[in-house]
Write a structure and sequence with these properties.
With about 700 residues, the chain is α+β, with helices and mostly antiparallel strands. It has 5 domains: about 5-105, Orthogonal Bundle (Helix Hairpins), CATH 1.10.287; about 110-355, D-amino Acid Aminotransferase, Chain A, domain 1, CATH 3.30.470.30; about 360-435, Nucleic acid-binding proteins (OB fold (Dihydrolipoamide Acetyltransferase, E2P), Beta Barrel); about 475-630, 5' to 3' exonuclease, C-terminal subdomain (DNA polymerase, domain 1, Orthogonal Bundle); about 630-705, 3-Layer(aba) Sandwich (Rossmann fold). About 35% of the residues lie in helices and about 20% in strands. The strands form 7 sheets. It has a 5-stranded mixed sheet with strand order 2-13-10-3-9. It has a 5-stranded antiparallel sheet with strand order 16-15-14-18-19. Helix 1 (about 30-65) packs antiparallel against helix 2 (about 75-90), helix 12 crosses helix 13 (about 495-505) and helix 16 (about 545-555) packs across helix 17 (about 560-570). The longest helix has about 35 residues, at about 30-65. It is globular and about 80 Å long. Bound molecules: 2-(butylsulfanyl)adenosine.
């Protein structure tokens, strides 16, 4: 299926040989002339055919990517096709047709949404895939600018969806997608749900202007959306970009509102009145109007500065909370930008300096099963090793049985895999065109591969489970979780030692760790006296971890570290938590029905109560330390914006909660205080508009101190 078809090229091009070319450097004799002409004509028609084929392929993949949000090939493969087409078209410019994929920016908007005409088109960016290409771009534009010195703004290229936000007389009136660059979809109702988009701007804003930016989902937001979809048995999104696009293209904006979408604004489209003269100042100006601007943007004075910025983020992009696929380099001065102008639909004054692809294609050799700590049978892909963005990948996540079926992934398929940050690589899609017929369909085993117990798939759940609480695979996973950094942090007991302890029968549940004897440990393989002492010391040290850690470490389903914090704060001891009823739990802000049910069920189990008793006997701290906290901030809602100097967000939030306060994510009429750190976001403008009390970091500290 292609979004548009390619009309035949005008026939005149076949006469092009008459104007000459390398083949005509000598004058051919009779007969010979005819031969040469035929060869060129054949050659041209072959080229024409090749171009036609490339366009068809690209149009098909465009449609999959832009309209269906379901790509079949990797970005790198797609880029390769585009480059090939561009190369042929630049060698044979007569063969360019107006509907060639090189002549447009994206796919046509879908019909259900209203159409918005962009007064200034939303264009695309040329790419540089290595430093040589970047330097070539720099040389070209330097020449055009008469070799004058000029500076650049470097920005991270967000991997999301471009939007245009129009403000008239201080109010957001229209929000649109890029569409084909000239006409986009009207998604105002959805964009209004994104909290980082200001609905109004201060009076010094131009009377009519358009801010442009990229809407995206953080890696964590993406994981959350997919977790929820997985639990609800819905198809999973392949990557944050698709999830953001899917979320914005909702006809029902309540669905959009439930997705943690965000935006970074990166430019001004159209503006009436006086605006700054450089891109950097424009960003500062937009920031002052309450727009969210990426704090990593940097003003650099030369190409070396650009390269240093690129290298820095190439190394540390995994630490960013969102996906980025490169650096956008922009000439800072608007007058130089005007001088440079455009080539086709791409500005000469900007370029996308891309990071190495994080997608690749390889073969799915087999599907293995791993038993999780809550007994879930997790299928995973065993791949022919392939290098993705500089890392060799051999395994990939497959989520669940339904997802495998929905994506129609078969053993033996050629598959597109993707690695995003620290997230486990995953299969995006099989390449069905490469099937040979020898692929086989995956069937979930009916018994647990670790203990042989008959597995179950509870109604309404996507996961198949091993119901045997004593299943060794489950206990191993649970033990590894119990000792992990965010839980009891017993650093000397890792995955391998956990396995050895289980195999030797020294540990049957997590509490047994606290009853290990040195002599028995020394009997284990590669365990000398010294290392045995280290292991025991590290176990001993874990006895005084805060209550929230032990609650988290127990591995109760749906109780992650945040929920554990809330429960620890609320109940103050394991015993009180164990006595909590479903209703009591549900009354706590931040505790949903799944977590509430799971906590109740956990403490109903005799085996779990035994583990708690054993932990107590071992001297593990099971209550909050110190005297009961006073609650000076009881019931007051705080919202934090910007970066705080004295503590992390999580610490600040814990301090508020610890004093009885509530932490909100957006400023509403219920918000009592907005705490403002460095580089505050749009929340500040909102708080000012609502006359919410605003606290500097110092004032916030004093308020905490007085409590
Ligand atoms: S500037 C004419 N800046 O990349 C300049 N674009 O291929 C056009 N993008 O559709 C855009 N981050 O959605 C610019 N910091 C950034 C960007 C960025 C992501 C996207 C944008 C555009 C695409 C261009």
């Amino acid at each position: 299926m292609t979004p548009s078809s390619t009309p035949p090229c005008p026939p005149q091009h076949l006469h092009e040989w008459k104007v000459g070319g390398p083949d005509f450097l000598h004058l051919p004799g009779d007969g010979e002339y005819h031969l040469v002409a035929t060869r060129i004509m054949e050659n041209t028609s072959q080229i024409e055919e090749k171009i036609g084929h490339l366009r068809e392929q690209i149009n098909h993949h465009n449609y999959r990517y832009y309209v269906l949000d379901s790509p079949e090939i990797s970005d790198a493969e797609y880029d390769q096709l585009m480059r090939e087409l561009r190369r042929l078209e630049s060698d044979y410019p007569r063969l360019i047709t107006p509907d060639s994929p090189t002549q447009r920016v994206g796919a046509a908007p879908q019909e259900e949404f209203g159409v918005v005409e962009h007064p200034v088109p939303l264009l695309s960016l040329g790419n540089a895939f290595n430093f040589e290409e970047l330097r070539a771009w720099h040389n070209r534009i330097s020449r055009l600018l008469g070799n004058a010195d000029f500076d650049f703004v470097c920005e991270l290229k967000m991997d999301g969806l471009a939007v245009a936000l129009t403000y008239v007389d201080g109010l957001l009136v229209t929000g649109a997608t890029r569409g084909d660059g000239y006409r986009g979809e009207n998604i105002t109702h959805n964009l209004r749900t994104i909290r980082s988009i200001p609905l109004s701007v201060p009076p010094n804003a131009p009377p009519r202007f358009e801010a442009r930016g990229e809407v995206f989902l953080s890696k964590e937001g993406f994981a959350r959306v997919n977790r929820e979809r997985g639990e609800a048995g819905q198809p999973l999104f392949a990557n944050p970009r698709n999830a953001a696009a899917g979320s914005l293209r909702q006809l029902d904006s309540r669905v959009t509102a439930s997705r943690p979408l965000d935006i970074y604004v990166y430019g001004l489209g159209y503006a009436e009145g006086v605006v700054p003269q450089t891109h950097w100042e424009t960003m500062e100006f937009l920031k002052s109007l309450g727009f969210k601007i990426n704090p990593q943007n940097a003003l650099v004075s030369d190409l070396e500065g650009v390269e240093a910025y690129y290298q820095r983020w190439l190394k540390s992009r995994e630490e960013l909370p969102y996906e980025t696929d490169g650096v956008v380099v922009k000439v800072n001065s608007f007058s130089l930008q005007r001088q440079l102008g455009f080539v086709g639909r791409e500005p000469r004054w900007a370029i996308a300096y891309k990071f190495p692809a994080t997608q690749a294609t390889t073969r799915l050799l087999d599907i293995g099963i791993n038993v999780g700590r809550t007994g879930t049978l997790n299928p995973y892909a065993i791949l022919e090793p392939v290098s993705v963005g500089g890392v060799v990948v051999k395994r990939a996540a497959l989520h669940n049985e339904d997802d495998i079926r929905r994506k129609d992934i078969r053993i033996g398929d050629t598959v597109v895999i993707q690695r995003a940050g620290e997230v486990i690589p995953e299969i995006v899609t099989p390449v069905t065109s490469k099937r040979t017929g020898s692929e086989s369909i995956f069937v979930m085993p009916s018994t647990c591969p670790a203990c042989g117990t008959q597995v179950r798939r509870p109604e309404g759940e996507a996961m198949v489970r091993c119901p045997n609480a004593a299943c060794p695979a489950q206990i191993h996973e649970l033990l590894a979780h119990f000792v992990s950094r965010g839980a009891m942090d017993i650093d000397k007991v890792g995955w391998k030692l956990s396995a050895a302890l289980l195999d030797a029968g020294l540990v049957k549940d997590v509490a047994d760790l606290y009853f290990l004897e040195k002599e028995r440990l020394i009997g284990l393989e590669r365990m000398a006296e010294k290392s045995a002492s280290n292991v025991l010391d590290s176990i001993e040290r874990s006895k005084t971890r805060p209550l929230s850690r032990i609650i988290f470490a127990l591995g109760i389903r749906y109780v992650g570290s945040e929920t554990a914090d809330i429960l620890a704060m609320e109940f103050g001891s394991i015993d009180r938590l164990a006595r909590a009823t479903r209703d009591e739990l549900l009354a706590i802000p931040g505790i949903g029905p799944k977590a509430a049910d799971s906590v109740v069920t956990f403490f109903e189990q005799e085996t779990n109560r035994e583990i708690i008793k054993k932990l107590r006997r071992a001297g593990v701290r099971l209550e909050e330390a110190g005297k009961p906290q006073e609650m000076p901030l009881a019931g007051q809602e705080f919202v934090i914006t910007g970066k705080l100097e004295s503590f992390t967000r999580a610490e600040a939030e814990a301090m508020i909660r610890g004093r009885g306060g509530v932490v909100g994510s957006s400023v509403t009429r219920k918000t009592a205080y907005l705490v403002v750190g460095a580089d505050p976001g749009s929340k500040l403008a909102k708080a000012q508009a609502l006359s919410t009390s605003i606290l500097s970091e110092g004032e916030f500290l004093r308020l905490l101190g007085s409590g």
